[in-house]
Amino acid sequence: MWLVTFLLLLDSLHKARPEDVGTSLYFVNDSLQQVTFSSSVGVVVPCPAAGSPSAALRWYLATGDDIYDVPHIRHVHANGTLQLYPFSPSAFNSFIHDNDYFCTAENAAGKIRSPNIRVKAVFREPYTVRVEDQRSMRGNVAVFKCLIPSSVQEYVSVVSWEKDTVSIIPENRFFITHHGGLYISDVQKEDALSTYRCITKHKYSGETRQSNGARLSVTDPAESIPTILDGFHSQEVWAGHTVELPCTASGYPIPAIRWLKDGRPLPADSRWTKRITGLTISDLRTEDSGTYICEVTNTFGSAEATGTLTVIDPLHVTLTPKKLKTGIGSTVILSCALLGSPEFTIRWYRNTELVLPDEAVSIRGLSNETLLITSAQKSHSGAYQCFATRKAQTAQDFAIIVLEDGTPRIVSSFSEKVVNPGEQFSLMCAAKGAPPPTVTWALDDEPIVRDGSHRTNQHTMSDGTTISHMNVTGPQIRDGGVYRCTARNSVGSAEYQARINVRGPPSIRAMKNITAVAGRDTLINCRVIGYPYYSIKWYKDALLLPDNHRQVVFENGTLKLTDVQKGMDEGEYLCSVLIQPQLSISQSVHVAVKVPPLIQPFEFPPASIGQLLYIPCVVSSGDMPIRITWRKDGQVIISGSGVTIESKEFMSSLQISSVSLKHNGNYTCIASNAAATVSRERQLIVRVPPRFVVQPNNQDGIYGKAGVLNCSVDGYPPPKVMWKHAKGSGSPQQYHPVPLTGRTQILANSSLLIRHVLEEDMGYYLCQASNGVGTDISKSMFLTVKIPAMITSHPNTTIAIKGHAKELNCTARGERPIIIRWEKGDTVIDPDRVMRYAIATKDNGDEVVSTLKLKPADRGDSVFFSCHAINSYGEDRGLIQLTVQEPPDPPELEIREVKARSMNLRWTQRFDGNSIITGFDIEYKNKSDSWDFKQSTRNISPTINQANIVDLHPASVYSIRMYSFNKIGRSEPSKELTISTEEAAPDGPPMDVTLQPVTSQSIQVTWKAPKKELQNGVIRGYQIGYRENSPGSNGQYSIVEMKATGDSEVYTLDNLKKFAQYGVVVQAFNRAGTGPSSSEINATTLEDVPSQPPENVRALSITSDVAVISWSEPPRSTLNGVLKGYRVIFWSLYVDGEWGEMQNITTTRERVELRGMEKFTNYSVQVLAYTQAGDGVRSSVLYIQTKEDGFLGRLQAEPPALMWRPKGDCAQSPAPSRASAPHTRAPSQPPERNHWGPQTSCSLF
Q1: CA distances from 242 to 178, 237, 309, 915 (A)
Q2: The Cα angle at residue 72 between residues 71 and 78, in degrees rounded to 5
Q3: pLDDT digit string (tens) for 1040-1073?
Q4: Are 280 and 242 in contact (CB under 8 A)?
Q5: Which Pfam families does this one have (predicted)?
């Protein structure tokens, strides 16, 4: 902080003090110093200053010139708002659209001005933003930067980043810095699968741009030394803000990062945060300035980035006092304190006018930070501003100073009272004045000496009131009397008095003689002490007073003489105090009357330069001796000023032998004697006929610029100046008064200001001055209007076709010679260095035509070209926005989603060729085909940026590309993308399905793969469904699955039911699902032997050699084939355990009669069913015994027996031996004999 130096003033100077003066001026936004706006939008700028009650608001250029309305271009509204309307580049005027303005607010309190405000228009320029592809090792950091053209970098900022068209939210591994960089930490392989874009926004036009999509190439870690990816150089940042110092490195092993400031490691500070993006410092302080080094190190080496950070304290100005009301003649001190950079300059303003030091005003301090006003006058009132400027930064503060008549006045006082001896009392007196007065105390006209019992204190309140207390401790009788408080300042004085009585025996203090001044009032106190007493009376010449209207005796005994007269009031006065009914005490006092000087009125006669002037100052009365002196404008008149003073006893004369302008002023005659000092002031006005201080001379004016026709006159009274104009270049014929409009006005020095010189202003001008003294004067001059180089014709916008020649024409006029220079952007075009450009210039009457030829136009020519016309009187510029049209760049195509039969595309149109996109075409084909066999989707609406391509074949590889169109033509094809559709379930069934029964419980299924074009992917396997089609089956398929092995497949179904019909279907499947089934084919398993014996087998012995065997059919489900018949097997069991011959009988019936059996013999019997496949399971062994032999009659009593003879073939096999004869268990009784023989089996029908 740079403190203000305060001046030490002598104690005799009365300092002014602050007081609330109810300021009515203020700033709404005094920090507004830059307004940048889009030329296509315009801008509205409210006045930063205001007032209450309402203030008059006005706008000025920084030069101090008033601004005026320009229809449809600039307007100042009634509320003080400045509006600049939208305009085309050709209407650009730096005087209006790129200039410094300020606004003022004025009311009764004064006038304040804002800091200069830079108002600047920016144009809409075509631009693109880019992001470059990056490389990074896995695990490292990747940094993407949004590359913005330098021509718009000031106005364009990064607002977001996208990853695959989805906005990136900073979290996890993704970071976005304040300067718009995208950082990806811990890079992974999948990061290379995405595209990254930055989105920017123009600060003033609001336009957004999207960059191209950039890719990240991710490599495997490889040992390497560190490399700095993102560093910094130098930055200037405001204190209190946050700054990011970027520093990111790549390498392997991953580098360690260390920060140093001024060569030392960073101290611990919570404001410093190390991030993956670099170092962040918040709440910046000036001590954070310095050189920062970012060191990155790994085992293979190191690298560093170095930069300088400068922290700037914003300028802050405080002006004290803020509000000041003080008296005329006071000393005013304004102190301007600054916080911020030391490199500043200070300027002082009063009511928006620059303060210039003079006799009363001085600017002091090492940096002009103190304003001192001595003997301040009413004219010094107003609004004072302290402006501090550092480079492009300005800060200010203001104060309101009010100067008024500051004669003191008593605003509060004490009353008369009676106290007892020893009873403490306090008296208070409050006074106001400007400057604040000082209060003194007296007792019975004697100043009170501060002692142990009398103490005073005083202080000044914030409103300027001085409060003083007189405290009396342990009062005695002598402390009674008339107490008077007197308030004095440099302007005057005021007093108040009242009696304080202390109880005790009354007495009168010795009275001191009094000197009164004739014509003034005098108070005479009877210096009585003690109380009580009955009365106080005054006598003069034995007469009880009052005895005339000028005498007043107050209740407290004070005698007042008004308008004292020497002859009548001078003499002895007696104060008589009645202390008892018959007892009085008295004291006398002599009053002497002094007569002050009385100056007779005098006047200065009208005087003209060179005249002799004699002015007497005569004192007509007053006690002698009288001293008479003269002053001019408050200063002693010194010798050598042309003024002679002659003084006598009661007269002094002022003589001027030759009056001149320097003698103008206020002259004061001062007469002094023992009684008083009086003065009389009169003004001498020297009438001077007008004369030229600066004569008009012929001069040049520049068209469009401000011109001042010099003519300065003086005289007294101040001459009235009139300007007249006669058009034409010949001899002036007739002069006409110059109309004083917003464009022309007469300045304070009488010169004529033409704000914007026009060609019609050329001609003779006459400056004529008169003031009623002497003869009018006049002088003529001729104004020649020089035409600065002006662009009179040029296209605002024009279009070229890329690859074709283009001519830009620019026409200028003005004083010759005229040079025309062409610029592209901010670069001067030099055809000798860039052969593609050619410039040709020719005269065309009073104009010059320059042609810039582009051979041919290129994309980079889509910028603002400017032609600059220059001559000795000025320069003008014409802006031409050239748009080079061409077929658009191909769209940037992305595959959003790929399915089996469709894919979703999204595209971004980058450069549109500066022509509206009219449509898109999409082409795709099988990758193996040529583009001659492509399929197309054409004339896609330009408002669409995504599409679905359908009817694709699953599990196929396609190539796809796009074109965009504008009215110029078709773009090149986009980058060809290759996609593979997903698999889909097969569309066709397996072919040539056949069934071949293999066994009674298995069927072999054979088939071929579906058609190739219907497989929709790689056939991974098959599902074989089979079901039994026999009556009563549930009809549900059982499914078995097998992996595919080739084009032909075989599968055997096992564990089927025997001799059952089965339906079989086959389905192919791939990763996506299962295809349709083949048609059902039926097959029956081979026959097998019955798996269960006949049921309900019974044996009944009929006779001794006949038995009947019956049974029922086995369950049909157990036949396992076509039942061919039954076989009955029987054999005899002998008592000795031997088996007889085993015999069998075949029949298709379910009953058989066995004849020829041995009598009364045990038999074992089994029955089985048989099919084509053979004999089934035998029934359990059934035992039967033939009956004993009996009579025939008895036999005949039985039911008829079946008599049969074998018919057909009988098979005979050798009789088995006993050891190998089949049996199930040993007979319960051994057979009586062995009867084995050849075994015979026959079929019975």
Answers
A1: 10, 8, 12, 43
A2: 70
A3: 999 999 999 999 999 999 999 999 999 999 999 9
A4: yes
A5: fn3, I-set, Ig_3
Alpha-carbon distance of 724 to 744, in angstroms, equals 12
Do you find a cis peptide bond into 314, omega within 30 degrees of 0?
no
Q: What is the pLDDT of residue 93?
A: 85
Residue 951: Cβ within 10 Å count: 7
> Residue ranges of the alpha helices (H) in 1097-1244?
1192-1196
**Measured between alpha carbons, how far is 403 from 1049 in angstroms, rounded to an integer?**
117
Token readout for 736 is: 């006409």
Give bridge partners of residue 348 from the DSSP assignment.
386
DSSP 8-state symbol, 931: G
What the block records as the tokens of 561 is 């003489």
Residues in the chain: 1245
Does the pLDDT at position 12 exceed 80?
no
Q: What are phi and psi of 95, to 5 degrees?
A: -60, -30
Residue 1014, SS3 per DSSP: helix
Q: How far is CA 1202 from the centre of its chain?
A: 120
Longest dimension (CA), the chain: 216
- 569 DSSP 8-state letter: H
Kind and range of the H or E run holding 618: strand 613-621
DSSP 3-state assignment of 1165? strand
Enclosing H/E stretch for 96: helix 94-97
Please check the confidence at residue 6 and state whether its pLDDT lies above 60.
no
pLDDT tens readout for residues 1133-1157: 888 888 888 999 999 999 999 998 8
> Mapping DSSP to helix (H, G, I), strand (E, B) and coil, where does residue 1074 land?
strand
Choose among 1020, 1024, 987: nearest CA to 1007. 1024
Residue reference for tokens 């005329």: 328
**What digits encode the pLDDT tens for the residues 795-830?**
988 999 999 999 999 999 999 999 999 999 888 999
Mean pLDDT value across residues 1166-1176: 93
* Intra-chain end-to-end CA distance of the chain, in Å: 138
Are the C-beta atoms of 988 and 1014 separated by less than 8 Å?
yes
Mean pLDDT value across residues 490-494: 84
List, for residues 538-567, the tens digit of each pLDDT value. 999 999 999 999 999 998 889 999 999 998
CB 333 within 8 A of CB 372: yes
Kindly report the number of other CB atoms within 10 A of residue 618's CB atom: 17
Domains parsed from the chain with CATH numbers: 25-122 (2.60.40.10), 129-221 (2.60.40.10), 223-312 (2.60.40.10), 322-402 (2.60.40.10), 405-501 (2.60.40.10), 598-684 (2.60.40.10), 689-784 (2.60.40.10), 790-885 (2.60.40.10), 892-980 (2.60.40.10), 991-1084 (2.60.40.10), 1095-1244 (2.60.40.10)
Q: What is the pTM of this model?
A: 0.50
- 421 near 460, Cβ under 8 Å? no
Q: Is residue 1165 over pLDDT 50?
A: yes
pLDDT digits (tens, 9 = 90+) for 228-240: 998 888 888 989 9
Whole-number Å distance between alpha carbons of 153 and 825: 14
Has residue 602 got a pLDDT over 80?
yes
Closest C-alpha among 514, 519, 518, 517 to residue 540: 514
Burial letters 620-634, b for 16+ CB under 10 A, else e = eebbeebebbbbbee
Nearest to 189 by CA among 226, 137, 144: 137
Percent of the chain at pLDDT > 70 equals 93
Taking a C-beta distance cutoff of 8 angstroms, is the pair 947, 985 a contact?
Answer: no
The pLDDT of residue 660 is 85
Smallest CA-to-CA distance from 1161 within 1081, 1095, 1101 is with 1101
Kindly compute the dihedral angle of the four CA atoms of residues 753, 757, 762, 763, in this order, to the nearest 10 degrees: -10
106 forms beta bridges with 56, 111
**1098: closest CA among 1107, 1089, 1087?**
1107
